[in-house]
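Table S7 (text form). Paired inputs.
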Amino acid sequence: MIKRAQVAARLSEREAAKRAGLSEARWRQLVSGFQLVSRTKVAVRSPDETLARMARAVGVTAEQLEAAGRGGAANTLRDAEAEAVRNRVGSAPGPDPTTGSAATQSRVDERWALVEAILDRALTGLTEPEHAALADRITTYAAQPSEADAGAQPADAGEAAEHR
């Protein structure tokens, strides 16, 4: 699963290993499931924390890890993603310069951290044209006023739903 995701993301073993904080040789061992010891193949199994880092590096989800029978790694990945969101929210800038409200900016930063985490995962492995098409949809969606802001449905509700 990790190897397929690496290939789909168009990452070299070197780049994937770097993103996961592993040597390229260790990456290969863990992906293949064995290492050579005195010219003998010895089975290796990734520790949960290492597998979670590898999964995150190539865009494998916690749900995929769980489906593969690696619930511990899935939980570790969820914890790491939650920590990354908390760190982004915790490093939020001060008051919103347009409103002066720290509370408003805090809510925006909190929501952005969630959106950013989802977008990071959604963009993994896309070709340049696919990336551009998704970016256009996101821009169109974000430009539409919310129902609460507009007080009504967008002019073309079907199109708005399609972009969601």
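Next pair, protein 2 of 2.
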Amino acid sequence: MPTEAGPGLAVTGHGGATPSRVASQQTGAAPGRVVTKQPGPAPSQVVAARAGTQPGAADSEPGAAHAEPAAPSLSVVDAVILERAAAALRLVLDRTRGRAPADDPALVETLLDATAPEQARLYAARRLGLDLTAPARVLAPLGDRPRVVPAGAGVAGSRPAPPEARLGVGPAVPVLDLPRSWAAARTALRFTAEGTPQDPGPRVVHADELGGIALLADLVVPGAEPPPDVRALEAAAATTPWLSATLHAVASTTSLRAAAAGINVHHSTLQDRLTHAEHLLGWPLRTPQGRLRLQLALAMRHLARP
């Protein structure tokens, strides 16, 4: 009559378990013996398979052969699942620690959209880690996404900009007024310059410091035909390499001596340059009215750039 050699297997024959029978149980076939598999794996087979051993009498009977444990391995599907789980966990940890949301484009866009519902903007502000009871401001870097920072964080915020970057800084406002700060920051960005001899001027401009001159931004359309004084500046600068830096020094300092020191030339040299510049531009530069006209022309020159 059949003897039971292991869960799920019935082996016909007589006698105890021999190495050949054990091998037959492991391979599922044996010469001269009929092996019948019962439907479905038994729980002991599942446990044995996970442990890297064969179920049955191989480990319990004397003289039975022992199978080597199989080395654990991951399938491609397992690896993909683990990688995605790790990415999701990293995203959750970053958000709860308040790092990643500061650069979340969707949240920032919602926060700065004046047409978005108030509750949606408040939700975005909380996700960005902002204090709803404290003022904040918007930074407008040239060629980069806007950044929202607390009012006392400075213009660098959580992600400092390169020193050569141009940046418009909006005013500090309540959280729900940040769309207004964003508009002002973009206007301030238009007044910035590269800070080079060919394009002198500040790289960082605060909207709070513009005052009434910010109204020029509504009058001068980028890329359109510039005003006559701007055209005169462009024509003069094209033929005189030192002109732009000299005129900026005169317009942004308190005296001609300070302007000469700012561009590292002698006072008499500056006087000669101004005489030549007045001839090219067609208006005086050493009178209060002429200096104001120069300041406006330089500001409109920045605004007229596409």
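The longest helix spans residues 76-97.
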